[in-house]
Amino acid sequence: MTATESVKTLENRVIEPLRSRGWYAWWALRETRGSDEGLQSDASTVQSAPRGGLGELRAQAPFDQTEVAVWQIVLTTLGGGVGSGFLLAGGFTIFSAGPGGALVAFGISVAMLFAVMTSLIEVREAMGEAGPYYMLAVRVLGAAVGAAIAWNFWLLWVSIAAYEVVAVGYIVRFWAPHVHPAVWGPVALVCCAGVAAGNSRWYARAEHAFSVLRLGAVLALVVVGALVASGRVGGHAYGTENWRHGEAPFVGGVVGIIAATVYSNFSVVGVEAAAAMAVKSRKATRVVPVAVCGTLAVVFLSSVLVVGLVVPYDSGWFRTGEVGDSAASSVFTFITEQARMYAAAHVVNVLLLASALFDCCASLYVAAALLGDLATRALAPQWVRGHPARSLAACTALALAGWGLGCINPEYALAILAGAIGVGGSITWCTIAYMHCSLRWSRRLKEKRSSAVHYRAPLFPLGPLLCLAYLPATLTTLVVLAVWAGFSAQLFLFATAQLFVFLILVAAAAIAQRFGFCCCS
């Protein structure tokens, strides 16, 4: 693949498929034991276990110390990992890197996820305090950087909500092609805000059930794909012909694999929050990372292997038409069509629509909780402190603004939002990895290691170092490709927009700290 083709591939195929990344924030939902404790505005609730809706959110409630059942953590997290982002963009890893490169990309993503989860568990135990991870960053990296990381984390969830309301329009267009996609966005946003504002006990149960259904549906699609690849269904035995076609199995070499990890990471970034829930139970700290990452590895690798056997990396399925967010863009739809199961496309689209709505509800819920916590720490306007409805309204308004920008200038707005999600998530991973390395190598931790730290991350130091190297390697590759053969503004904005925003946040936080306008408490 030439440099010009690489730029064209990344510009057209990196930005659009990422609109429907499959992060799931409802790992934060579960049923508490005993009385109805509700959701606290402390952002640690994002990493713990609220039961009540936003109306029960309390400004200064203590950190919930109720242990979460291991099966609830694993099930809800798996449902978030195997989401619309994987169903849509998973196949484009093959387009970017070939079938072999796609397997390597997902392997790297799952390995980094395991490293981040285990690092977060050890950091939480070593620092011996409950609270959101960015408050740990304040102690390790300083107040200014910690405040910037906190705001970056909040913007991450607002960007997800904005993305999902745009995605809903394209998903519904699969059934109503003559209706403009922009019509459905505000309707979906209002409905999701209403769900986030209400009692969420029923939502937690629905999320558990939907996670089981989604995992079952993906595994069923894998079985169908295996039957198609073997020739038992569809009448053609593919064998390994697509692995020997053209430049396969590794297309584009290292650059192609790095580009493919942009897709694969969208399915796993955010899943690391399960580690913060698991830290309350010593059993969960050892079971959850292995169970989550092991299951995701089996699902992802088996799915990509089957798709790579059936769909060639240069298939017209990737090249013809505009890449959207409906089942028409999913390679699983292609496989079901090869199996002559034409009605299955509607099933895939239902899964995508439900995933987008769940993601939007969860993102608004989490963003509102984070904003309330930032206000209690003097990092956000005080008019939202103790007023969850105001926090939700502010997050909804900002998400609606992002949707509006997407309607006015979708190309550049979506590039910026995609970068906010992708780069913002990578900044989170790098922060956790750096804190882990700093604490493990500090003299204070060495002195306390025998008594205070009961958990040791098994991949240290290779895992954290891999996470620290990933972000600069990816950004450098994307920026070079953006300017290599004709300047690509979309790709350049995707790679750099959120990084510039983060640097501005650091500078603003440093100035505010210097003049006493805000403090971290």
Automatic annotation (TrEMBL):
Q: Name one GO cellular component term.
A: membrane
Provide the transmembrane region boundaries.
69-95, 102-121, 133-151, 182-200, 212-230, 250-275, 287-311, 350-375, 412-437, 458-485, 491-512
Q: Which Pfam families match?
A: AA_permease
Q: Where in the cell is it found?
A: Membrane
Amino acid permease/ SLC12A domain location, by residue?
73-514
Extract one GO molecular function annotation from the record: amino acid transmembrane transporter activity
Q: How does it sit in the membrane?
A: Multi-pass membrane protein
At the top level, the lineage of the source is Eukaryota
Its keywords, alphabetically, are: Amino-acid transport, Membrane, Transmembrane, Transmembrane helix, Transport
Q: What PANTHER family does UniProt report for this protein, alphabetically?
A: AMINO ACID PERMEASE, GENERAL AMINO-ACID PERMEASE GAP1
Provide the protein name.
Amino acid permease/ SLC12A domain-containing protein
Per the UniProt entry, what species is this protein from, by scientific name? Coemansia thaxteri
